[in-house]
Write a structure and sequence with these properties.
The chain has about 300 residues and is of the alpha/beta class. It is about 45% helix and about 10% strand.
Length: about 300
């Protein structure tokens, strides 16, 4: 497809000011506990390290389904996310669970592979039974202005995903400007993304308030224009409950209450779950538990 992105100039100062105002909101105790549980239910519990092993993935899956057995009425996380070669062990570990399995694909994290190789990798994880595919956008091609190539690549990956949901990772830390973040968001959604995601977690800066706000506004405008619902996944550097709640406030004020569900909003994180658990116990009992009471990352 001969794709030409629409131009939506971004006021960087204005975006920063709006993000700061939203992040200054405070939440009372009862609402805070609900927000903490909601954030917990939106986590894609993730391990994407070169030292990952079958044992580590089994532990991740155990943690996903046993967040804190001594504390009842906790939601489960939304998904576990891993490299393609770890999907089979995750499927076995979570066979009796409703927790979704996501795999990164398309030569994560660089995206430096042929289209054929990327599609073969996507097909392999889909055949292995994943529920979700997290692909990386070809940032080099995008920054060269080869928007049609990037559009077609995302569209072909989406087609290969079949019933699996597609999250497109923009890697916003490499896109340089907020104008590019907006253009990449629009492109990914037009090409069929079910979610747009900030980062691989391997490049800094990753998720930032300004970047997330720009992406949420792109989702809002796309929904108003087309009626199509697209989800959002900030990832990279989100490790505290306070920051997670601030992002939930931003989502509610930008997209509305309807987006405050794991079907439309996720956090890509590894250590965030433990901090949320500590805060839930503190809010409920008045006592901080040691990190040793929680399952190992």
């Amino acid at each position: 497809m001969n794709y030409h992105p629409q131009i939506h100039p971004i006021d960087q100062v204005g975006v920063g000011e709006r993000a700061s105002r939203l992040f200054s909101r405070s939440i009372k105790k009862e609402s805070k506990i609900r927000a903490l549980k909601l954030a917990l239910s939106m986590i894609d519990l993730t391990t994407l390290e070169g030292k990952d092993s079958l044992g580590k993935v089994r532990q991740l899956c155990y943690k996903a389904s046993h967040l804190h057995d001594q504390f009842s009425n906790l939601p489960q996380v939304a998904a576990v996310c891993m490299y393609p070669n770890m999907v089979e062990v995750a499927k076995k570990a979570l066979k009796s669970s409703s927790i979704k399995i996501a795999a990164v694909a398309t030569a994560f994290p660089s995206g430096m592979a042929t289209l054929e190789a990327k599609l073969n990798e996507v097909k392999s994880v889909v055949d292995a039974g994943v529920d979700e595919v997290d692909m990386v956008m070809s940032r080099g091609r995008f920054l060269q202005g080869d928007y049609s190539y990037v559009f077609d690549e995302v569209a072909k990956v989406k087609n290969t995903c079949g019933k699996a949901h597609l999250k497109v990772i923009l890697e916003t830390g490499e896109l340089i400007t907020l104008d590019n973040v907006r253009k990449a968001s629009d492109l990914a959604m037009e090409a069929g993304a079910d979610f747009i995601k900030t980062s691989t977690g391997k490049v800094k800066p990753a998720a930032t308030p300004s970047v997330v706000l720009v992406m949420l506004e792109a989702i809002r405008d796309f929904y108003k224009r087309t009626g199509k619902i697209v989800g959002m996944k900030p990832a990279g550097g989100i490790s505290t409950a306070k920051l997670a709640i601030q992002y939930l406030v931003m989502v509610r004020e930008t997209l509305g209450q309807e987006w405050l569900t794991p079907d439309r909003f996720r956090f890509g994180a590894s250590s965030l779950a433990n901090d949320i658990l500590m805060q839930i116990v503190k809010q409920s009992t008045g006592i901080y538990q040691s990190i040793n009471y929680f399952s190992i990352d």
